[in-house]
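Incident log, entry 3
Record: Carbonic anhydrase 6 (326 residues)
Problem: checksum mismatch between cached and fresh output.
Input:
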Amino acid sequence: MGTLATLVSLLLLWAQAPCWSHSSEWTYSGGELDEEHWPRGYPECGGNRQSPIDLQRRKVRFNSALRALDLEGYGDDEAGQFPVTNNGHTVQISLPSSMRMTGPDGTVYRAVQMHYHWGGESFEVSGSEHTIDGMRRAMEIHVVHYNAKYESYEVAKDAPGGLAVLAAFVEAENAENTYYSSFISNLASIKHAGQSTVLHGLSVLNMLPQDLFHYYSYEGSLTTPPCTQNVRWFVLADSVKISNVQVWKMENTLLTHQNRTLQNGYRSTQPLHSRVVEANFRYFPSSVILSFIPYVLGSELRSYLHRIENNIQYLVESLEEVKRQV
Ligand SMILES: *[C@@H]1O[C@H](CO)[C@@H](O)[C@H](O)[C@H]1NC(C)=O
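Fresh output:
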């Protein structure tokens, strides 16, 4: 009887066993576990607190209590060695736990890794995961951290409030960003999925946008399987600029496990449901002021007024920051 029960439960286990062999076989498109079918293998991907999302600026709630993030050890570039891997989905840079981020509520997070999401599959150079008012930027950086109250990333990755991601957009311009040169030229040496190299003297700070103060924040998930819903997101409002050629190299150098060019590695935006996105800055639609100026006044005057408007907005934000610190 005991043996029969064991046999039956073994059979049941076998029947429930997933039909893929290891977790790296999920994809964004193509195959059994494409994005649409992630919830089949990873139920949390079908949850109601998923990332990425569309950041709709009109609906974002201003919260003056969202203090600046405190980034520690992000610029320690001299002595560092950074393992870099093509994991078949993206290029991932391992980060030392001496890199830390303190959130607005005082929670301390330790850095684990950073990686990129990009597009490149069609003529459109767009591959960010979050969108702003529906617009997808060229690329997106994710610096993944775990809550320092847990002893390791392994523990924190499944624990409540376990993770925080500092995200930033990358935009394409004509000028080369020299802080990216060595990183991008090294991609050729990790062309195949599973290959690794070591980068020396990387400054994560320099690879991020200038303005680290203004950000959006909300509760979400990992944007890849298992889509764990324990991520506090900080999405910077400013973006990094790299050249069109640098974006092109990011989009056309690495290969997936199937030896296909690693492109369009981003997840589509997920429903917000009952969540509210907050920001530590106010949004002024530029049309509010400019709409009062008739077009007949000419483009020079309009652009002049636009500059004044931007300066006023900057002053208002600076005053709010001063108020907060007093
Ligand atoms: C990908 O290409 C490499 C090098 O040419 C080869 O060793 C490997 O078997 C290929 N993998 C697949 C899945 O075709």
